[in-house]
């Protein structure tokens, strides 16, 4: 090669290298605003915190497995089954994997892309004369064999690719937080259904015992009626009392079946193939310590999801603004092209090309400006949603705290009422056995005692449900891990 030609090629290569280095240097910047967490109203302490125990780092509570607070092995096994077989959780998990795939795709955009093509084409070109075209229809056909390797790379000068990756990573983290929120929601539903079922079992045992007592009372009243000691009205009252209790007992059967079927579906099983045996105990009401309100922002997965949506929206503003600037693409291609197969891959048939390309849009009728406006509006929307999610979280915690506190006071009063009703029943039965009062007086006191027994159980059920709802409102116990980096 002549010396002048070599110098020319060297100069071209130097310019290309300089341009590439400039692109790399410029790629250190990224247009668009950097993310800053939006301000959210966070109180120094909960309004209803009086009387609650402060959470301590050395607390013995299990992190994450909050359902273990209720001390029920059957419940623990059901929740573990839910974690692996719940279909709503499976849907959210699949959505999270889709988000992960988008992150991988965004990272791939930073690397050069290479493509290889090998092919054969047959072509013909006319001469402009119909007569000559007819005479040369055979000889005018030409075969071309091509083999080409191309490499191209887009320099991320304005940070469009990096902002896109930032947005996709934030979306993936939001998806992971959504998965955690769905799992917590399903766990909460299962625990609530299970606790209600166990209270129904206790109510069933109470009514079964009551029915047996009423049956004995009816037989005793019928016997006294035959001896002229009791009246027909007393028998009718005893029958009414017995049938009412039996009806209430039957009503519990379908209520229990509904909770059992709900648990089956939550654990990914057909109701026909699931059965939960009755037990003789009701799970204990746990003691729930509270952290400071600011920890709620780290614990609750819905808050984490809302904030990461803000991060994604903020990054998308940078992607939209990068569209104003030109794209720089460096490409290199080379290969072989020949009209004959025999001499296809040979030095005389080689070809190559290399060079940069700058591309930008000169006029788009305001489309880029409109896209920036849209992404900024989306950002404002996600910020408002984040703040509203935080406010809703505090509201839920305050509601369940005051509910549990009031119910605790109510439980103490109802326990006293129940004790008094039991004592009244004992004294009334003794008076009846001594012949001092009629059986109608006994029926009234028995009904009052049963009503108090069932009220205490219903209140226990409400307190158990409220405790589950408070734990869920606090973010599902004390496991605030919603970080995508821990799951990669």
From TrEMBL:
<dbReference type="InterPro" id="IPR003423">
    <property type="entry name" value="OMP_efflux"/>
</dbReference>
<dbReference type="GO" id="GO:0009279">
    <property type="term" value="C:cell outer membrane"/>
</dbReference>
<keyword id="KW-0732">Signal</keyword>
<feature type="signal peptide">
    <location>
        <begin position="1"/>
        <end position="30"/>
    </location>
</feature>
<feature type="compositionally biased region" description="Low complexity">
    <location>
        <begin position="123"/>
        <end position="140"/>
    </location>
</feature>
<keyword id="KW-0175">Coiled coil</keyword>
<keyword id="KW-0472">Membrane</keyword>
<protein>
    <submittedName>
        <fullName>Heavy metal RND efflux outer membrane protein, CzcC family</fullName>
    </submittedName>
</protein>
<feature type="coiled-coil region">
    <location>
        <begin position="75"/>
        <end position="102"/>
    </location>
</feature>
<dbReference type="InterPro" id="IPR010131">
    <property type="entry name" value="MdtP/NodT-like"/>
</dbReference>
<keyword id="KW-0564">Palmitate</keyword>
<dbReference type="Pfam" id="PF02321">
    <property type="entry name" value="OEP"/>
</dbReference>
<keyword id="KW-0812">Transmembrane</keyword>
<comment type="similarity">
    <text>Belongs to the outer membrane factor (OMF) (TC 1.B.17) family.</text>
</comment>
<dbReference type="GO" id="GO:0015562">
    <property type="term" value="F:efflux transmembrane transporter activity"/>
</dbReference>
<keyword id="KW-0449">Lipoprotein</keyword>
<feature type="region of interest" description="Disordered">
    <location>
        <begin position="117"/>
        <end position="140"/>
    </location>
</feature>
<keyword id="KW-1134">Transmembrane beta strand</keyword>
<keyword id="KW-0998">Cell outer membrane</keyword>
């Amino acid at each position: 090669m002549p010396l002048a030609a070599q110098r020319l090629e060297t100069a071209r290569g130097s310019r290309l290298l300089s341009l590439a280095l400039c692109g790399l240097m410029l790629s250190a910047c990224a247009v668009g605003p950097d993310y800053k967490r939006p301000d959210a109203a966070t109180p120094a302490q909960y309004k209803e915190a009086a009387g609650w125990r402060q959470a301590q780092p050395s607390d013995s509570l299990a992190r994450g497995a909050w359902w273990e607070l209720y001390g029920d092995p059957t419940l623990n096994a059901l929740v573990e089954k839910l974690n692996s077989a719940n279909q709503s959780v499976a849907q959210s998990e699949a959505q999270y994997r889709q988000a992960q795939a988008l992150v991988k795709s965004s990272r791939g955009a930073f690397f050069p892309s290479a493509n290889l093509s090998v092919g054969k084409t047959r072509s013909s070109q006319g001469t402009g004369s119909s007569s000559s075209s007819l005479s040369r229809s055979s000889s005018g056909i030409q075969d071309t064999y091509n083999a080409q390797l191309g490499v191209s790379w887009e320099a991320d000068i304005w940070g469009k690719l990096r902002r896109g990756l930032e947005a996709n990573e934030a979306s993936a983290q939001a998806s992971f937080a959504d998965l955690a929120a769905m799992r917590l929601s399903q766990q909460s539903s299962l625990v609530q259904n299970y606790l209600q079922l166990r209270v129904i079992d206790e109510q069933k045992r109470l009514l079964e015992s009551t029915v047996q007592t009423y049956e004995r009372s009816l037989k005793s009243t019928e016997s006294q009626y035959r001896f002229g000691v009791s009246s027909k009205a007393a028998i009718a009252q005893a029958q009414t009392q017995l049938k009412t209790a039996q009806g209430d007992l039957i009503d519990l059967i379908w209520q229990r079946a509904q909770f059992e079927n709900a648990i089956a579906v939550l654990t990914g099983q057909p109701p026909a193939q699931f059965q939960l045996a009755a037990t003789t105990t009701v799970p204990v009401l746990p003691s729930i310590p509270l952290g400071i309100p600011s920890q709620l922002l780290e614990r609750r997965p819905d808050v984490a999801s809302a904030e990461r949506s803000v991060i994604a929206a903020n990054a998308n503003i940078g992607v939209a603004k990068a569209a104003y600037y030109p794209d720089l693409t460096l490409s290199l291609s080379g290969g072989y092209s020949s009209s004959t197969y025999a001499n296809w891959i040979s030095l005389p048939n080689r070809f190559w090309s290399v060079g940069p390309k700058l591309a930008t849009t000169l006029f788009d009728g305001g489309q880029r400006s409109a896209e920036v406006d849209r992404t900024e509006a989306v950002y404002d929307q996600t910020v408002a949603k984040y703040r509203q999610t935080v406010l809703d979280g505090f509201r839920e915690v305050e509601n369940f705290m005051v509910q549990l506190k009031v119910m605790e006071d109510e439980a103490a009063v109802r326990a006293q009422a129940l004790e008094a009703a039991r004592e009244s029943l004992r004294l009334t039965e003794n008076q009846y056995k001594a012949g001092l009062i009629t059986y109608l007086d006994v029926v009234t006191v028995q009904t009052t005692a049963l009503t108090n027994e069932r009220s205490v159980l219903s209140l226990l059920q409400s307190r158990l449900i409220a405790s589950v709802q408070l734990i869920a409102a606090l973010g599902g116990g004390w496991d605030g891990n919603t970080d995508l980096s821990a799951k990669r």
